[in-house]
Fold Sugar phosphate isomerase/epimerase.
Amino acid sequence: MTDRTIPADGIGMHLYTMRDVLADDYSGTLKRLAGIGYRTVGVSGRFDHSAADIRGFADDAGLSIVLEHVGYKRLSDDWAGALADVQTLGAQWAVVPSIPSELHSVEGFKTAAAAFTEAGKAARDAGLKLLFHNHGRDFDEVDGQVLYDILLGVDPELLGFELDLYWAVDGGHDPAKLFQEHPGRFPALHVKDMAEDGSWEDVGAGKLDFGAMFAHSESGGVEQYLVEHDKPTDAWKSAERSYRGLTELRY
């Protein structure tokens, strides 16, 4: 372990954490997050605002939007529109947050990999990058094959990953090992901690060894460390505590 810290401009909030307060006051929520110290955000849910509205709120708050979560169906329904919205937000990554349950098989993931390949080409042409966000079951082994490995087989130029650290560990995988074995594939992270009982916890208050993971984050190509908590009791206390947890980390 060294005295390395996460760069301040790499510490962000994935806005799913703040969904309850965002629904009441999107603009004010972004300003308060900036006041805590966050520099970036990942968008998840518009709450009846346009992409241009949200870009304006972020600009007013002095925050940079780095990505938006875009549902899998839009790959076929309106991918050009989704990419245009990501451009409007000023973000660089369009992130598919999950693969539909009916595709949760080897053949289904091969279908998704093919869809990601085509969508990744369109993203590249638009000056953006397609990422996939995992859940624990994406690491299931089916018929002798780890499903996530099928996606890792897609051309790195066309598909990267927003690695959710909690779900990777929940799925039985070591993020540090993924960073080392698949260099440069993980530009964004969901930094989500795990309580002793396996539930979600504020960053730094749980049992995940982020220091051991982040010792290899450079290999993984990590640029953004986005805090996430799926069900915070108090979103603001969680946001403040997790920000401290990330800024105080030495690795």
Q: What stands out?
A: The chain has a mean pLDDT of 97. The two ends are 5 Å apart (CA to CA). The CA atoms of residues 141 and 219 lie 25 Å apart.
